[in-house]
From TrEMBL:
Residue intervals passing through the bilayer: 21-40, 60-79, 91-108, 152-173, 179-201, 271-290, 302-325, 331-350, 362-381, 387-407
Keyword presence, Amino-acid biosynthesis: no
Species whose genome carries this gene: Sinomonas halotolerans
Organism phylogeny: Bacteria, Bacillati, Actinomycetota, Actinomycetes, Micrococcales
Protein name listed in UniProt: MFS transporter
Domain of life of the native organism: Bacteria
Region annotated Disordered, chain positions: 412-447
């Protein structure tokens, strides 16, 4: 006769199953988000043709997405606290689905104002969806105690790769973009209604024991109540935001302009441009899928520096190459370089679980503002110097991210800075416990 299973073992097994289910749900939500975004981005040349817009005018239209996101992002933390992360993703998906329908109708009417209204709604939906899914991903990463955020973003890139291939195929088959968008709306609604139900419950304001509470404005009861404002005043969080800003400019420019740049600059077909976009996102997907293990081995700082150097080389090659195939090589290096910085920034912002939600929200907001607002600026610049040359402008923020890579060094909770930073004392270990290793040391990282 078998021995009864202890209740604690049952609870632990149940907890592991819940974390596994939550991880799969976050993967699915990220992938759907990427699929939707890339399906739209791969067919931007079609939008330009339908509405008879110049590159600069298309840039102005894309800027409307950023405006919608700017309105929604500061409210996302409050919304998530009131209705939960799952319902925030559902709300964002529903708004994005409505936006897709409005855009499709606007394209059928060839109406710029109607398309602009749809894009503003799309920006609102993307903001709610993106911030909430990153916080949900950080919750899973903490429970698993290993680096998994890049894989969630690999799911986004994988979804984007599939979306780009679908976009290229539908473009080659001369399927009207409005029909394409209506189909995407159905996919979004099916996923966001069901999948977020498996997210982990997120405690936005965990209260640690008094003896463990750190000093400073975020460690007090009043500081926790004002956590969102405190996160915007936290220097390390803001610097991580600057790093992520450079990375998201790199990724956003690729998503919006890599296909049109090759169509305009090298007279490639629209389907060839969409294919090159797929190559870019495919490279990002591979780097993100295997990036977690690399980060755990060499540390965040080294991984980020290698990424930024790859982005610098790849973007330069894409912009200056005289042939499609050389530009494709540049697109691969560009995609590999753009892959890890954003998820790495999310993990760095979430180092202290008690402040993870607010800090992830801050870094996400900074990053997505750049992700959405940067490409329209490049469109304006492209009207004057050509789109591929205009893309060289983002070499400057990439270089800045390279210089600031050290701020992503792993920070232990309850400390304002890492122990290997000058002038910061290392906290002694508790009796009977080993002394802590440097946070960015491969042997000192969470297994």
């Amino acid at each position: 006769m078998s021995e009864p299973v202890p209740p604690m073992a049952v609870r632990e097994a149940s907890g592991r199953d819940a974390v596994r289910a939550a991880a799969l749900a976050v993967f699915a939500v990220f992938a759907t988000n990427g699929f939707v975004f890339a399906s739209w981005a791969a067919r931007i040349p079609s939008v330009t043709d339908i509405l008879a817009l110049s590159t600069g005018q298309m840039g102005a239209l894309l800027l409307v997405i950023a405006v919608g996101s700017l309105v929604a992002m500061p409210l996302t933390g409050t919304i998530a606290e009131r209705i939960g992360l799952a319902n925030t993703v559902r709300l964002g998906g529903f708004v994005a689905a409505v936006a897709g329908s409005v855009i499709a109708v606007g394209l059928l009417m060839a109406s710029v104002p109607v398309v602009a209204a749809g894009l503003a709604l799309f920006g609102v939906g993307v903001a709610l969806w993106d911030v909430a899914q990153n916080i949900a991903g950080a919750d899973v990463e903490h429970r698993l105690a290993r680096t998994i955020m890049p894989q969630f973003h690999a799911a986004f890139s994988g979804g984007a790769f599939l979306g780009a291939m679908v976009g290229a195929g539908l473009s080659a088959a001369d399927i009207a973009l409005p029909v394409h968008l209506f189909a995407i709306v159905a996919v979004v609604l099916a996923v966001v209604v069901v999948v977020p139900g498996w997210f982990l419950a997120h405690d936005a304001d965990p209260s640690p024991p008094a003896s463990a509470a750190p000093q400073g404005p975020e460690g007090t009861g009043a500081g926790r109540r004002g956590g969102a404002l405190a996160a915007w005043r936290h220097p390390r969080t803001l610097l991580i935001g600057v790093v992520v800003l450079g990375a998201t400019l790199t990724e956003g420019a690729g998503n919006d302009w890599i296909s049109k740049g090759i169509v305009d600059g090298l007279r490639a077909s629209e389907s060839a441009g969409a294919l090159l976009f797929g190559v870019f996102v495919g490279a990002m997907t591979l780097a993100r899928w295997f990036g977690g293990g690399i980060i755990d081995r060499i540390g965040r700082v080294a991984a980020l520096r290698i990424s930024m150097v790859s982005a610098l080389i790849g973007l330069t090659a894409y912009s200056l190459a005289g042939t499609y195939w050389l530009s494709a090589v540049g697109a691969v290096l560009w995609g590999l370089g753009a892959a890890l910085a954003f998820p790495l920034g999310m993990s760095a912002a979430a180092d202290d679980p008690r402040h993870a939600a607010n800090r992830v929200s801050v870094v996400s907001t900074i990053g997505y503002i750049a992700f959405l607002a940067g490409p329209p600026f490049l469109g304006f610049l492209g009207d004057h110097v050509g789109l591929r040359l205009a893309l060289l402008a983002i070499l400057a923020p990439i270089a800045l991210a390279l210089l600031l890579a050290g701020v992503t060094r792993k920070e232990a909770p309850d400390r304002a800075a890492s122990p290997d930073e000058p002038g910061t004392p290392v906290m002694p270990a508790s009796p009977g416990q080993p002394a802590p290793l440097p946070p960015d040391s491969p042997s000192g990282r969470t297994p």
